[in-house]
Structures are given as C-alpha cells and as structure tokens.
Specification:
mainly alpha; 7 helices; single chain; globular
C-alpha cells in the first residue's frame, strides 16, 4: 500500500499544520464549536489542536493501524463538523487553521472525506513509519517527501484561502 502512503502522509502533515495554531490561538476554533452548539471553551480549541498534532505526528513517525484509525476518525469527525457548520448560519469560519477567515465549504467536506477514506484503507493495509515508506520508494523517498510537502501546502491553500477567494468574488 505504499501507493497510498503519499496522500496519507500529506493528510497527516496537514493535521500537524492545522493543529499548531490552535494551541496558541484557539479562539476561532472555540467560536466555530459554539456555532454548532458546543460550549465555547478555549481549552477545547487547544485540545482539538493537541489531538491533531499527536495523531499527525504518530501517523508520520510510527505508522501502523492505530494511527491510521485515528487519522480516519479525526477526518470523519471533521467532515461531520463541516457538514453541520455548512447548514448553520452562525458558523462563519471552521476555525481549522486558527483564523477566522476559513469558511466551511463543500470543498473542505470533500477533502475531509477523501482523507478519511485514504486513512481507512490504510487501517486494513497498514504502512510503516515515514522512513520505512521512503526507503521503499525511488531515490530514497526524496520525491515522495517533496510531493507530500507540496501536497500539504496546496491542501492548506485549498482549504484556507480558496473559499475566502470565492466568497470575496461572490460579494
């Protein structure tokens, strides 16, 4: 299942990237949670960020079934949250990247469902840690590593910037 390792690792990196800002700036995540009826607690936003970081790092550094299951569950939960947030008029931002300018969108829902799908497949066909995956790919995994990082960056742009651009264009 090394063929699925690239997208899976990309989504794991995206978890870490989205979790880090929540530790220092959990307010937007807390507001998003409040918008769907949960209590607006700062610590809850930080807890979500911490879980994202731990799961993302374990998927990258450890590999195996348990991290893949955790990645699948997180992204399935995110998809559920985005679906509810899209139906709520009170949620203006999903708070995913520690900012208030990330509106929930159908594109975000598709990315979350795809990430959950990749991770689910790897629950049943586990891969090793990133070093094992890299050693099983050409050129010691450097092209894979480059594609994972570029893919994570592009995913961040698609989730955080593109919806705001569409919203601005439609205004």
């Amino acid at each position: 299942m090394v063929a699925l390792a690239g997208p899976y690792l990309m989504f794991a990196v995206l978890l870490v990237v989205s979790g880090l800002p929540k530790l220092s700036n959990p307010a937007s995540t807390a507001r998003a949670l409040e918008g769907i009826g949960l209590p607006p607690r700062r610590w809850l936003g930080q807890a979500v960020g911490l879980v994202e970081i731990v799961v993302g790092v374990s998927a990258i550094a450890v590999g195996g079934r348990a991290p893949a299951a955790a990645v699948a569950l997180l992204y399935a939960g995110f998809a559920g949250f985005i679906l509810v947030a899209m139906r709520s008029s009170s949620v203006k931002s999903c708070g995913c990247f520690g900012a208030d300018d990330t509106p929930p969108s159908a594109l975000h829902l598709v990315v979350d469902v795809a990430a959950a799908g990749f991770a689910t497949v790897l629950v049943f066909n586990p891969i090793g840690d990133v070093t094992a995956v890299m050693s099983a790919t050409p050129w010691a995994g450097l092209p894979l590593l480059l594609l994972v990082m570029v893919g994570a960056w592009l995913s961040l742009l698609v989730l955080a910037v593109l919806p705001a651009v569409f919203a601005e264009a439609n205004a």
